[in-house]
């Protein structure tokens, strides 16, 4: 898909039930990392579907899977590439390979640079291979050569732990989407990410959190469930309000108590999302009528605009 004339359309998003139109980026490309120092929050699901929805907005999009677990790659049918250790991002980092040589068309209007099962070994070699700027390899070798020329947007799926790979993702993108799942450690995972990963980098560069995304919610919120607790904690912090998407924002808790709020806030856990992964497809291509697509579409709109845009 790279190199096709799809950039900066202001046509409709081509996504069912979307309240948004594509943003005219006026040539301003953007890279973004989906990251959280906690596993089980649905990072790969968000990364894949964010890339897909950006593509429906008529943008050229590259998904980079930097997670050694390879969930995004396998979830798009790139099992063989994941198990192929002969050619991957390591060759780009250390052997001067052209980054486009390890980029593939997903068949869903966006490209992927897949993960591989030897990515942890690549990570160990980063310190030796680029001792002076070990956190700038992805930016220098992949993102800078491709962003704006080949791709309008680059989405990176990052590991769920602090590492050279996560540092590379943040340095290369400087724009973050942070997923949170219900549970006792939801906010502590956010705090760890800010304290251990974002704050140190902010001493040297601008790092912008574009959106905090409550994900994988499946309980009622008119009772004291973990879903409600997560939404309450996010919506009670004044400093976080401009980072909460419209689909997760609650301003009328009385309506929540009476069950009058619709749709239920957050990205909800739907069978279609799980089945889409099993079928090796993005959600849009598995179930174009899923009610959660509008949430992924808003995330795409946030990445286009570089901020949450209030509506209604």
Structure report:
The protein is α/β, with parallel strands linked by helices and 312 residues long. It contains 13 helices and seven strands. The protein starts with 29 loop residues before the first strand and ends in a 7-residue tail after the last helix. The model is unreliable at 2-17 (pLDDT under 50).
Give a short synopsis of this structure.
This protein is 38% helix and 11% strand. With 312 residues, it is of the alpha/beta class. Mean pLDDT is 85; it is low at 2-17.
What's the shape? globular
Classify the beta-strand content into a percent band. Answer: 5-15%
> What profile does the largest beta sheet have?
7 strands, mixed
Poorly predicted runs are 2-17
How far apart, in Å, are the first and last alpha carbons?
35 Å
| Secondary structure: number of strands | 7
Oligomer: single chain
Order of helices and strands: EHEHHHEEHHEHEHEHHHHH
Q: List the strand order in the largest sheet.
A: 3-4-2-5-1-6-7
Helix content: 25-40%
The gyration radius over C-alpha positions equals: 19 Å
* Global structural class: alpha/beta
Mean model confidence by pLDDT:
85
Number of helices: 13
What descriptors fit this protein?
7 strands, 312 residues, single chain, alpha/beta
Record the SSE blueprint.
Layout: E1 30-34, H1 43-56, E2 61-65, H2 71-74, H3 79-83, H4 89-94, E3 104-105, E4 111-113, H5 119-129, H6 137-146, E5 153-157, H7 164-173, E6 175-180, H8 186-202, E7 208-214, H9 226-235, H10 253-257, H11 271-278, H12 283-286, H13 293-305
Parallel strand pairs: 1-5, 1-6, 2-4, 2-5, 6-7
Antiparallel strand pairs: 3-4
Helix pairs in contact: 1-13, 6-7
């Amino acid at each position: 898909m790279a190199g096709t004339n799809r950039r900066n359309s202001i046509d409709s998003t081509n996504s069912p039930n979307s309240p948004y139109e594509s943003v005219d980026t006026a040539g301003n490309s953007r890279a973004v990392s989906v990251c959280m120092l906690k596993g089980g929050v649905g990072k790969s699901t968000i990364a894949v579907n964010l890339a897909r929805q950006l593509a429906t907005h008529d943008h050229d999009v590259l998904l980079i899977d930097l997670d050694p677990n390879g969930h995004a790659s396998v979830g798009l049918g790139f099992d063989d590439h994941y198990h192929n250790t002969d050619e991957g991002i390591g060759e780009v980092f250390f052997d001067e390979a052209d980054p486009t040589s390890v980029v593939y068309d997903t068949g869903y209007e966006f490209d992927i640079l897949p993960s591989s099962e030897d990515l942890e070994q690549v990570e160990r070699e980063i310190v030796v291979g680029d001792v002076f700027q070990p956190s700038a390899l992805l930016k220098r070798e992949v993102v800078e050569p491709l962003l704006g020329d080949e791709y309008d947007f680059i989405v990176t799926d990052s590991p769920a732990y602090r590492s050279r790979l996560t540092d590379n993702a943040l340095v290369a993108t400087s724009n973050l989407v942070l997923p949170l799942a219900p549970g006792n450690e939801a906010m502590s995972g956010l705090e760890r990410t800010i304290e251990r990963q974002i704050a140190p980098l902010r001493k040297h560069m601008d790092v912008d959190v574009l959106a905090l995304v409550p994900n994988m919610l499946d309980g009622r919120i008119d009772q004291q469930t973990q879903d409600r607790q997560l939404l309450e904690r996010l919506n009670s912090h004044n400093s976080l309000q401009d980072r909460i998407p419209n689909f997760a924002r609650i301003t009328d808790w009385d309506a929540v108590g009476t069950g009058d709020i619709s749709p239920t806030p957050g990205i909800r856990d739907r069978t279609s999302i799980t089945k889409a992964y099993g079928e090796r497809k993005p959600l849009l291509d598995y179930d174009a009528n899923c009610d959660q697509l509008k949430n992924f579409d808003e995330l795409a709109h946030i990445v286009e605009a570089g901020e949450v845009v209030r509506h209604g």
